[in-house]
Amino acid sequence: MSTVFHNPLSIPVLGFCAYSGTGKTTLLKQLIPVLKQRGLRLAVLKHAHHNFDVDIPGKDSYEMRKAGARQMLVASHVRWALMTEDPQETDPDLVHLLQQLEADKADLVLVEGFKKLALPKIELHRAALGKPFIYTEDPNILAVACCDETQLPAQILRLDINNVEQIADFVLQYAATWRPPHPVVKPLPLDAGETGDGDNLSVRQGIDKILAQVQPISATETLMLDDSDNRILACDAVSPVDVPQQTNSAMDGYAFVHREPLPEAFEVKGEVLAGHSYDAQLQLGQAVRIMTGAPLPTGANAVQPRELANEADGYVRFSGTLKAGQNVRLAGEDIAKGAVALAGGSRLGAAEQGLLASLGFAQISAVRRPVVAVFSSGDEVCQPGSELKPNCIYDSNRFTIKAMAKRLGCDVIDLGIIEDSEAALTAALAGAAAKADVVISSGGVSVGNADYIKKVLAAIGEVHFWRINMRPGRPLAFGKVNDALFFGLPGNPVATMVVFLLFVQPALRKLAGELDWQPQLLPAIADETFKSRQGRTEFSRAIARIGADGQLHVTSTGSQGSGMLSSMVKGNCLAVIGDQDERVAAGQPLYILPFGALL
Ligand code: AMP
Ligand code: MG
Questions:
Q1: Measured in angstroms, how far is the CA atom of residue 430 from the centroid of ligand 1?
Q2: Kind and range of the H or E element at 158?
Q3: Who's near 76: CB < 8 A, 6+ residues apart?
Q4: Is the CB of 450 under 6 A from ligand 1?
Q5: Alpha carbons 372 and 380: distance in angstroms, whole number
Q6: Do 302 and 320 form a contact (C-beta atoms < 8 A)?
Q7: pLDDT, tens digit, for every residue of 38-89?
Q8: Three-class secondary structure of residue 502 per DSSP
Q9: GO CC annotation: what is one (predicted)?
Q10: What contacts 226, CB < 8 A, 6 or more positions away?
């Protein structure tokens, strides 16, 4: 059978197939009004002969299309039609065609033709025609509609080709029970990767080799909680208190003793506000008015919200259900005294800072920030703000690198642009390595110019020049200059960013003391074809958004030149086509790597 069909829509697609002469169109013309009358909104997609036309010579739309318009859209206030000239060698791509439909305005797509595709179908069969069955070759046939004289095995669902109501029943049942398929879970593309030879590495191998060289910073400093944003907690925060401290009310209402038999009415003994307490023991049949967060009186074990209570003459009556423990927060239910409230290695965001504050911490111990020195190289690279010389390019890499490093909580030293001379480069590198934990440069690591930077690095450090099987960002230099880690990123601006995200980011996070950080890949569905090459991991700039089917869908930002920073601006993620895949077709699952908070 033909290729697998992935329905890209959030509504079911059902095909009708038959040999010509069976009466497919005749049946559909009878079926459609019945389905419509029963409340089903329909879209129909029909396969046609290659030289079909819906327009008529002489009509403006026909003439304009013939004059060369690739697309022609004619519209009135009741109807519109879009005609597209899309000549292809092979049959039209059903997934692409389905995507042209307004799936939010239909409940089902009926497909006529496309007999060879593996979509769910009803086969129409007339014994009188003497044609073979399709179901014997095609496992996607859900039912065969045929005449009385036709013999079918018992396991094949049989419909009466002359009973339109019965076929409609089947279609309605199919539409009602259909659910969108979950995307197929594939192995994570960054976990894959065969052993390359020598300096030729897969993405995973590159990351692993780098992380093996990174020793987390051990120096710590004490910080006020207010100054701890985006810092890494140096050791476990153990809770000195129960959170909440006391068992308290989760609602404004009445606290009472829940024990059978419950009285009809409860005597209201008083009121407890947050920050206060009711000091007597509450007895069965008694209640106190209580505010959210106020401690429960001893003896009380339930709270009824104010909306379900009616107080009169010193007594309260409850409506609604009453259960022991309802609307009560137990002491220590969030965090118990002595428990690890936040593990060392956590990055402190808003929630973490709030949690530490809720435990009473005013200060914390944080890992010292990594210091990152950044420079650019290349005689063609110019400082923004200065005049752009002929044949030159403004330095953008230093700015993307600095911004990403700062967002990761690093202190950044900007070394500017270093001219292409051995002496200048040697001095810059040695100086940077003395001050920084990590030195990052961009440019000058591709095969053409690697020899030059190699010579300098060989003299003052140990650096490997790798070819990573990825695009963009094939060349990468990594090693050590004195005690500092050195990254030589590729010069192309998009490659610089992608290589930073994939290789520098995990290294900086590990260095900063963050525990076991992994890139967050998300499964999504390709809304167009993403191309790659087997043996190479492709990172296409892409836009991910939730589709009408509630699943994550991804489209490319367009041209993928590795110098086009605008693609990083337009996109919100990288679509990752792993080294096992040659391409990911429209409608197929793939993984994305959201840029997240780093860009
Ligand atoms: P290279 O790796 O030095 O051969 O550089 C590859 C490409 O990236 C060339 O087109 C360079 O002009 C460009 N490039 C190198 N460094 C920078 C930079 N700092 N900012 C922007 N583009 C750069
Ligand atoms: Mg260069």
A1: 22
A2: strand 158-160
A3: none
A4: no
A5: 24
A6: no
A7: 999 999 999 988 888 889 999 999 999 999 999 999 999 999 999 999 888 8
A8: helix
A9: cytosol
A10: none
